[in-house]
Amino acid sequence: MRGRAAAVGAVALLALGACANPAATRDPTPEAAPRLTSAPALSPTPVPTVRSPRPDTLHFSVLGDVGATADSRRVLSAVGAAGDAFTLVVGDLSYGAAGAEPAWCDTVKQAVGPHHPVELVAGNHEDHGPNGDIDAFRACLPNRLPGLVGRYGQEWYVDVPAVHPLVRVVMISPALDFGAGEWSYAAGTSHFTWTRDALRSARAAGIPWVVVGMHKPCLSVGVYACDPGADLMNLLLREKADLVVTGHEHMYQRTKRLALGPSCPAVVPGRYDSGCVTGSGGTTFVTVGTGGHELRDVGRSDSEAGYFAAVSARNKDAAFGYLAVDATSRTLDARFRPAAGSTFTDRVSLTR
């Protein structure tokens, strides 16, 4: 229904390691997500780390809705040329046939490098099909970041760098079905509690920035309603996630900074409330469904349009590309970088 960056010093090497995370066994029920207190399910992935000082700047990239088109290859080539520390793919990967997952992974690795960490979370095209299976994708694009906690490809978090982290990345799967019903992130569910605890423990650990990734957005000027649910949306605002990245809508859309407070006790999906827009701090939501699959139109009269600061879609400044994110201990800079053939750009800079 709706909707790098400041030049900052030399880039230090990250302690990323290289390890294939074993594919996890799926839950027997949609509410079987591990809690932060569950040691067996949440043991960090045993990737060796090399202790090093905190880098001046951490560079990483985000994209979703990739596919296997000429535009996909242009976007992936741009990502590969950037030399980032890792890349987050927020769902809807190949749009190909079941069984063809390794071929798509090979295409990605040819573009970005065979050892570049391409970190996945599922979309609705590969949660339970129809265009492949997340288990097969994570087998050919395994986790390469040390210390990952949770179920890679579905619900996980990781601190980067592993020593003196600048960013906690939290990846979740609201409204996706891995074979036993859709995962709900409504208040009181295990998935809601897992996400809340992942956010709070990042703050308690003093990690400067929290970035949340998931496939489906809540606020949008595209065609979809708030499938993740208002409870999750307001949890991210209440716990002050800094940047929330999504796909699903085949466009680029960035909100203004949103925050809860006396003038905005909650964001209600489907309507605009100016009291929820803040001039500083807050949470920024960015959809980067521009990885190469066909674009869609923006809804020019969408009821949530007032929340958005920038939009690129098939009928408005059409562009394929990815989000380049630079993090320091004091700033988080996110810039849309268009692939060859596109000119639209956008940038938001957050300061602690």
TrEMBL record:
Segments passing through the bilayer: none
Keywords tagged on the record: Signal
Keyword set includes Signal: yes
Ranges for domain Calcineurin-like phosphoesterase: 62-252
Signal peptide location: 1-20
Region (Disordered): 23-55
InterPro entries for the chain: Calcineurin-like_PHP, Metallo-depent_PP-like, PAPs-like
Pfam families per UniProt: Metallophos
Protein name (Swiss-Prot/TrEMBL): Metallophosphoesterase
Organism name: Phycicoccus sonneratiae
